[in-house]
Specification:
The chain is an alpha+beta fold. 34% of the residues lie in helices and 17% in strands. The protein has a 5-stranded antiparallel sheet with strand order 8-5-7-6-10.
Length: 229
Amino acid sequence: MGFTIDGLREIRELRLTGRLPRRLVRNPVRMAVAEYTGLWGWDVTPGARAVRRGPGPGRPECSCGRADCASPGAHPLSADLTIAAGTSLRQAMADWDRTPGATALLPTGRDFDVIEVPRGPGRRALLRLERIGLPLGPVAEAPHGRVWFFVAPGAAAELPQLLYRMGWDDALPQLRCLGLGGHITAPPCEHGGLGPVRWLRPPDLESSAPPPARLLVGALAYVCHRAAG
């Protein structure tokens, strides 16, 4: 995680003076986009949203308009639509307003990869890792029952071999890693029409970078193995 000094200064000054733009304060997604790009130094990609038609628990439709969409409300609108890290607050807002109603997606593989585990094991692992004092990056929980641990980029490529060397390769069905070309839905946006994604451990200035995957994989694989048994 590489926060930007200019973005940090700009957002902090606006908060201290109370001069945050009204439309930024009133829209938590727009505020989050400004912080992700300007404060934490992450790219943000506008994503499709799920649209429910009528009552009932039926499968939602996707705002992309494709009847056969495989991931309603959980994919980028276009690979070319990205708000780059470090974009000024004014420009980030202008770029975001070009895709009204979009969800915010965080691309993986550049500043971080994401290890994904089921909710129960993920929550237990988070408590375990915090208790023993291992370095942690941001951790988010998605409404489809998954927990996302941010780790240093490159983890997706090395994870299978890392698990094999540790003797935890049987955890692979439950534990996977998103790297280059992947993305996650960013808090506080909804994921797939199921509800909002939320932070279990939000980004902060104490962590200058997500930890190497090898520091977390043992604990994550252990809880996944126990859950499967």
